[in-house]
Specification:
- The chain is an all-alpha fold.
- Among the domains are: 2-79, no CATH class; 125-175, no CATH class.
- It is built from five helices and no strands.
- It has helices spanning 2-25, 45-79, 100-124, 142-158, 161-175.
- Helix 4 runs antiparallel to helix 5.
- The structure holds zinc ion (ZN) (3 copies).
- One zinc ion (ZN) binds next to helix 2.
Length: 187
């Protein structure tokens, strides 16, 4: 029985192989056997498009599943009090998602794509954070200015005074284009 089906299958394979080559040699779509094949391809326009859609759909599904897995893993890690990214080390300081090492890696990665952009905006006289119109006398726009101040306010609630001061100085120089003077900077 097994032998029989094997034989049939081999025969079918052979037939479909022959058909494939016949269509190919005659420049007919090997999939539908109806339309003319696109030059240098074995399929017609319609079948190629169908293939592309199928591929796209499959790829989207794969991506969705991957995203869900990754998200679940991150949540699991966080619930255990471990770094959401690597899952191997505990959360750092007051970080809600990452260990110290992963935070540094992430920060460097962000910096790499952020810096060229910032440079361009800096030269063009635009907000160095978003490319918008600058708040007069500052390196950033009104909106970014508010965001930065909010961040500093939040920082005050969870980091040491010294760290805040360093951060403030950096922000002041980097974004506001002037050294830090206390109080006066507040909006
Ligand atoms: Zn076709
Ligand atoms: Zn980590
Ligand atoms: Zn901005």
């Amino acid at each position: 029985m097994k032998y029989k089906t094997d034989e049939v299958r081999l025969q079918q394979n052979e037939e479909s192989r022959k058909r494939y080559h016949w269509y190919k040699d005659h420049h007919i779509c090997v999939k539908c056997g109806q339309a003319e094949a696109v030059p240098n391809r074995t399929k017609c326009d319609v079948c190629l498009e169908k293939d592309r859609n199928l591929h796209r759909e499959n790829w989207n599904n794969v991506r969705d599943v991957r995203n869900i897995y990754a998200k679940n893993r991150r949540v699991r890690n966080k619930n255990k009090g471990m770094c959401a990214k690597c899952g191997a080390k505990p959360l750092w300081g007051n970080s809600t998602s990452m260990c110290y090492d992963c935070m540094i890696v992430q920060r460097n990665a962000t910096r790499r794509w952020r810096e060229p952009r910032e440079l361009k905006w800096r030269e063009a006289g635009l907000c160095v954070r978003c490319g918008g119109e600058r708040k007069p006398g500052f390196m950033v726009c009104r909106k970014c200015y508010d965001i930065l101040y909010k961040q500093l306010d939040y920082a005050r609630t969870c980091i040491s005074e010294e760290t805040i001061l360093r951060k403030k100085e950096w922000v002041s120089l980097h974004y506001f284009n002037k050294p830090l003077r206390y109080r006066e900077c507040r909006p």
